[in-house]
Structure formats: structure tokens, C-alpha cells
Design brief:
By secondary structure, the chain is mostly beta strands. It has strands spanning 5-8, 14-17, 23-26, 36-41, 45-50, 56-60. It has a three-stranded antiparallel sheet with strand order 1-2-3, with no helix packed on it. Bound molecules: zinc ion (ZN). Zinc ion binds at residues 18, 20, 22, 50, 52-53, 55.
């Protein structure tokens, strides 16, 4: 894993994990991340930056999330 990953949990929480070891779990109803910066971009995209190492990743907003199963 060399990119920031954001994973939805079935109970409505989100987990963001950075390869540098930074990780944060955001509960339902919590609007802001503390360890990551999320910037909304045009064309339904957004950028996530890790505050610890500065790594950034652009995502496209996806409605209807597909999850890979291992
Ligand atoms: Zn990081």
C-alpha cells in the first residue's frame, strides 16, 4: 500500500489510513478529519492530504461504493 486509503464501514464510520502510519477513524456525524485534510475539487473530485507526511491523493466521489473482498 503506497496511497492513502479511505474505507467505509457498514456502521457508518470511515477509516482513513496513510502508508506513513497515520490513521484515523471518523464516527458518524463527525464532519471534519483531524489528521487529514480533505479539499473538495471541481468535477465531483476531492483531494485528501495527510498532515503527518504531506502525501496527497485525489479521489472521485462515487455514489454506490464497490468494495473488494479478499
Ligand atoms: Zn502520511
Amino acid at each position: 500500500m503506497d496511497e492513502i486509503e479511505m474505507m467505509p464501514e457498514p456502521n457508518g464510520t470511515w477509516i482513513m489510513v496513510c502508508p506513513c502510519g497515520q490513521a484515523e477513524c471518523r464516527g458518524r456525524g463527525v464532519k471534519a478529519w483531524r489528521k487529514f485534510t480533505v479539499t473538495i475539487l471541481p468535477d465531483q473530485r476531492y483531494r485528501v492530504c495527510c498532515t503527518a507526511c504531506g502525501r496527497c491523493l485525489e479521489h472521485r466521489l462515487i455514489y454506490g461504493i464497490t468494495r473488494s473482498t479478499k
